[in-house]
Specification:
By secondary structure, this protein is of the alpha+beta class. Helix content is 25%, strand content 30%.
Amino acid sequence: MHPSSEVQTMNSQPVSQGVSPDPSVLRQQWNALREAQPRTRIRDAAEQLGVSEAQLLATGIGDDVVRLDPRPGELLLRLEALGKVMTLTRNASAVHEKRGVYRKVEVNGAVALALDEDIDLRLFLSRWRFGFAVREARPEGTRRSLHFFDASGTAVHKVYLEDEAGVDAFERLVADFQHTEQSRELPVEPVSPPETPRPDSDIDVVGLVEGWRGLQDTHDFFPLLRKFKVARTQALRLVGQELTTRVAPASLTWVLEKVAASGLPIMVFVGNPGAIQIHTGPVKTVKAMGPWMNVLDPSFNLHLRTDHIHSAWVVRKPTRDGVVTSLELFDAAGENIALLFGKRKPGVPESHDWRALMAELIAALPATEVA
């Protein structure tokens, strides 16, 4: 299994919500905003209007939006019938898009996995509260999609149909999962503030380092942090150079350009509390556009706000297959933006080329400040 469960703390940083707005008024405001700014995406529009994305989307119920039953585990098992899709998982700083077929789906209670080579996901269904089907009229034809949100109305995961042969399956799915409640008013919950890290003096650093050195699998990392009640970036800072090395925020661009030039296959994780999406393989077309660093390949797109990268770390985790090295990116609040690994499978040691690249990165782009 991939080094995935350790990133369950990835954050979505949703916009705070106030009093529930009148859906009719909100719909009018959104229409006016779209007319004035036709390229504005719904997430950005929601932030401008002071509501959640789910609340804004729900104003289309009865027109181009259908609310779905909160049975995501059952629904996920139906997605292979849609054929080729584009899946999108994001947080406040990064958008991860993959194209493929929703194959090899496993649902185990509140955790679901999609284990296809193209669509590779870890889904935490206890975070999934609202679901919608959308039929959006566009000049090139109707675009059909599924959108899932957490209790605050923040997007968790989206699926866009890309195969006309899947239209009938999509329509059957919508009919089978249509919610009995189709009101445009959505009962979202306030966003929970992030937990304040404990003082460094309260952390058992010796025990943390000992536990870290004893890791057998990357999946054990998140439980280790919970055991010692330590925030992730706090742990990276406290354990010392043997296990972590802070590097410059520009490290992401440097690494993507290096692997694009060399063809070295990597793994790119982007997630939020409800979903983690993984790309495994090479990246080829890397392009900076303003503050965004982008990967623009046929089956994989990444869009990441480099100006949100407050700290970047090369992190070493022991496993039964040897040390696994990652580049980990965090925002100013210490929330994870993305993780990069060398391509690997269980039972196979880490790529020497990836480990050498991380060593080169540490020499080339040392951090210039200490958090």
